[in-house]
Amino acid sequence: MTGPTSGEVRDEVWDGRDVSGQVHTSIAFCDVDMTEVTNEGAVFTDCTFRDVQFNVSTHNNAAFLNCGFTRCSFFDASFTGCKVVGSTFERCTFSMLKVVGGDWSFVGLPGADLRSASFTGVRMREADLTGMRADGASLRDVDLSGASLNRSCLAGCDLRGSNLSSLDPMAVDLRGAQIGWEQAVQLVTALGLDVLPD
User: Fold this and answer.
1) pLDDT in tens, 109-135
2) How far apart are CA 78 and CA 16, in angstroms?
3) Distance between CA 126 and CA 28 in Å, rounded?
């Protein structure tokens, strides 16, 4: 949870701006258009984002640490090798979001609609994904150890290579999900069954 802010950026158009290398701490961004922003290595710490448009923005090796996002749009945004540790997302939209690598541990994404999003090789340890909609999404090689996944919908989701050690197969919808052999054994074991040779 972010604390009090020390400054505010409101009703500004940053469309297409390059914010690479910038450092922002405890700043509130309200109604800011960050469409097609280019971000290489910028660091946002304890910032809040309300009604901010991140559409088609590109973020590489950047950091959003302990930030709060409310009613933000991430249409076709991409995050590569970014740290989003401890940040929370409330009533945001994530259509066609692409996340590759990086650390999203301890993020709060309860009830998030990630059905058209893809996460690849991302660390999401102890993330709050309660009630998440990820049916048809791609969560490949994602570290979900310790993550809260209760009441999540993972139907048809590509989960191959992901750590599912904290997943209760009775508490999520896994119909048609794609998993590997080791994951299958892990889920069967979680159901209390013993896997034995024929």
Assistant:
1) 999 999 999 999 999 999 999 999 999
2) 14
3) 26
